[in-house]
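Appendix C: a fully annotated inverse folding record. The material below is reproduced so that readers can follow the format used throughout the book. The structure is listed first as tokens, followed by the designed sequence.
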């Protein structure tokens, strides 16, 4: 079966008679990608499920607002990033903890997570990534794991490509340094 093209999905989604079918196809196409991206930001499986659900609810309610200034995937990832950051921010505000403590808590949760299975090297890499500031961590994950171009990341995060390249470079340097310390 050929993967459905985004333009075809949009046609289905914007037609009242085929909207549900188009949405189901969109979920099938993007759910795993959104889950992986979100999981690397919020870490917890349960929180990730909540964020992913919110992402698709927002897509359902706002698909008519999509102006096609960017690719559909970019728009979806932007929603996923915003929802992930909103969750992290709410955790920080609800718990009244400094953000560096949230990062530490996320890092420690890796070893407690039944859904996260990794060898020692992978665990150290993930903990190193979690030690990065949120913005650098997102840029690193989108570039390294999701294979997005700096142009795509620029659209998702609404930041210049040169700033992203700098963030990525610093993230890589910090990860290397952290891994060499352990």
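Designed amino acids, in order:
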């Amino acid at each position: 079966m050929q993967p459905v093209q985004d333009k075809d999905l949009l046609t289905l989604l914007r037609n009242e008679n085929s909207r549900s079918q188009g949405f189901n196809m969109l979920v099938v196409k993007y759910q795993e990608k959104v889950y992986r991206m979100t999981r690397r930001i919020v870490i917890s499986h349960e929180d990730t499920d909540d964020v992913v659900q919110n992402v698709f609810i927002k897509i359902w309610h706002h698909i008519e607002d999509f102006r096609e200034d960017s690719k559909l995937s970019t728009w979806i990832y932007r929603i996923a990033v915003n929802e992930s950051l909103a969750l992290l921010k709410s955790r920080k505000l609800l718990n009244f903890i400094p953000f560096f403590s949230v990062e530490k808590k996320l890092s420690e949760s890796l070893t407690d997570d039944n859904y996260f299975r990794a060898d020692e090297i992978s665990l150290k890499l993930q903990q190193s990534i979690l030690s990065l500031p949120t913005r650098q961590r997102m840029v690193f994950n989108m570039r390294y794991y999701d294979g997005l171009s700096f142009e795509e990341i620029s659209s998702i995060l609404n930041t210049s490509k040169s700033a992203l390249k700098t963030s990525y470079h610093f993230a890589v340097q910090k990860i290397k340094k952290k891994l060499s310390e352990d």
